Amino acid sequence: MNHRAMTYRIRLFAAALAPLVLLACNADSTGPAGESPPLAGAAIGGPFTLADKAGREVRWQDFQGKYRIVYFGYTFCPDACPLDVQVMMQGFAAFERDKPKLAAQVQPIFISIDPARDTPAVVGEFAGHFSPRLLGLTGTAAQVDQAAKAFSAYYAKGKQTGGGYLMDHSRVAYLMGRKGEPISMLPVDKGPQAVAAELAKWVN
């Protein structure tokens, strides 16, 4: 399998966020002194059905009762995805060392937006490079599109290069609550410690 993304020099790109449609509702998670989560009430998250590395069906509701970290990307990404996922999982590992019992209640998830190339086995291998705790998911084009729309995740087929096409996509690591509600965007652009601190703030 070609994972040039793991060997290319990592560069930072500006994050592209899809518009968030806000709804009036109460947040289930609170931070210090009853602080409301940054994404409280945002219309982010929803039902999906995808497949894990073994091709087994995985549904959003399967994670009910757990916190979830959700990132959309693709395995052939030459720079942004490996960087973001590495920082995300390093931050999670730091949080896990400090608070193992709470970390056990968090499921990190990587969802491919390139189903044409990202088979279950490919996504599983990619996720495994970063952590055995990271769950890699993919699916049919329709299934991936449903999941991306539920999370306001932008993606589109980009320019063709000598090694194949690239994918344009938003770069957001969402922290979701036990009921699937949006809590916060993890600051992967600020490094692992910032990610660990954000997790410690909201996972309780």
What is the gist of this entry?
The chain is α/β, with parallel strands linked by helices.
Tell me what the structure shows:
It is a single chain. The chain is of the alpha/beta class. It has one domain: 3-Layer(aba) Sandwich (Glutaredoxin). The protein has five helices and nine strands. The strands form three sheets. Strands 5-4-3-8-9 form a five-stranded mixed sheet, sandwiched between helices. Strands 1-2 form a two-stranded antiparallel sheet. A two-stranded antiparallel sheet has the order 6-7. It starts with 48 loop residues before the first strand and ends with a helix. Mean pLDDT is 87; it is low at 1-27.
Instruction: Name the strands of the widest sheet in spatial order.
Output: 5-4-3-8-9
Question: Which geometry do the CA atoms define?
Answer: globular
DSSP summary: helix tally: 5
Q: What is the number of strand segments? A: 9
For the record, the CATH architecture stands as 3-Layer(aba) Sandwich
CATH topology term: Glutaredoxin
pLDDT < 50 runs, ≥5 residues: 1-27
> Share of helix among residues?
25-40%
What is the top-level CATH class? Alpha Beta
Instruction: Report the portion of residues in β strands.
Output: 15-25%
State the secondary-structure class. alpha/beta
The description of the largest β-sheet is: 5 strands, mixed
What is the straight-line distance between the termini? 39 Å
The gyration radius over C-alpha positions equals 16 Å
User: Would you tell me the overall average pLDDT?
Assistant: 87
What is the ordering of alpha helices and beta strands? EEEHHEHEHEEEEH
- CATH homologous superfamily assignment: Glutaredoxin
Query: What's the domain count?
Result: 1
